[in-house]
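Lab notebook, page 48
Experiment: co-folding of the full assembly
Goal: obtain a model of how the components sit together before planning crosslinking
Operator: M.T.
Materials (sequences as entered):
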Amino acid sequence: MDELALIREAQRGSVESFNSLVLHYQISVYNLAYRLIGEPDSAADAAQEAFISAYGHLSDFRGGSFRAWLMRIATNACYDEMRRRKRRPALSLDDPDSPMMEQLVHPGESPEALLQRSALNQAIQECLDALPDDQRLVSVLCDVQGYDYQEISQIARVSLGTVKSRISRARQRLRDCLQGAGELLPESYRLKHRDEG
Amino acid sequence: MTSGIPPTEQDFELLSAYLDGELAATARAELESRLAAEPALRATFGEMQRTVAVLKAAPRVTPPRNFTLDPAKYRRAAPWWARYRAIQFVGALGTLASIIIIAVGLLSFNVASSSLKNSAAPASAAQGGIVAALATATQNPNTLDKAQSAPLVPALINATTTPAASTTPAQAADEAALANDSTSGFASTVVPTSFPPFSDTASECDEHVRACDVRRWRSKRSVRPNPIAVAAVLTCRRNRPAGAFSHSDWYRVDAISFRVIKEL
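Observation: model returned without errors.
Model output:
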């Protein structure tokens, strides 16, 4: 995919070219929204708003990392969604019809593997939800989605030093939270307390 | 030797940056030394590694739907100048043409300036002879009749160098008119393009031009144009700075020294 060519065509008014970019980035954008907001429906609304806003502001993109630019817009959309909507309680994992379970299903995966991944997902999301918004953002971008510090600095609009300190504090909190999750985590992912040796 | 001091906030930040490969070489080496020597620090780093490993294992969630935009709803017209590639192409051609014209104009001006400066020295010997010949003729340029002026013109022609590359339309018209001016007796002459050296300063050039305005000389039938003065006018006009001459007075100029004799 020639991303630059698609961007140029989209800037000239080609919705089809922009939709090619949407298909390429929608999983990343949705996952960012889901990890920030914590609810699949609200995350979908925020992701849709993010792409609509990105299309409307394409003329503002003047080069550099399109991914970072798009994620910046998605972050703003997530914050708007969080302010606008009341967060719903997490759906029960025992509900086989819950949307979240459907979104975690991998083709050919056993029910046991699905349950294990669901449990891991729930534990991680609960610990992320407990973080302050600014720490959650950098933690998701760095540890969940794998962005480097420079891109995180562009997305979050903060200095590199701030990125480093927020990631550090987020990891401390997440360590404590995940250690407390204990049995909720699959055995291979459990973090032992220091006194357990 | 081990340290029992628990890691500080700063240690945690160092470990975090070290885990992500964001530490400078010096700081990294220092931290690695400490990791080797401090079990508590090493244990904390291990916990951080496992925490990050859990987060990286977070399941990637499939979006519930595609987020593509409906073209019918979101299609927008490109700006009119961007809609037609032909307009863009013409615009680009126009820009290119402007650049070429400006470049040619600048090059021509430079060539004209350098050719006239170069012609002054080589032509000086021949022109010195012309001056000497003039010195034997009448001292009053107004009585320089046809018999005396005609031989001077071929001598001037021989002293020419490469013509100036650029002339204004008015200058070109003057030169053409001079070449064909039967009343002056110069119908068969070629207008000289070089001239006895004189100063290039704007003020001196202006003086000569004021004194020897060709068009006005020709309108005064009682006075024959001085061929040397004619060449002086043409040379001055090519070389003078833009806007240096805007004056309309008349002067009589000494044909040899080019000093102003009298204001008419």
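Interpretation: The CA atoms of residues 61 and 233 of chain B lie 87 Å apart.
Next step: discuss with group before ordering constructs.
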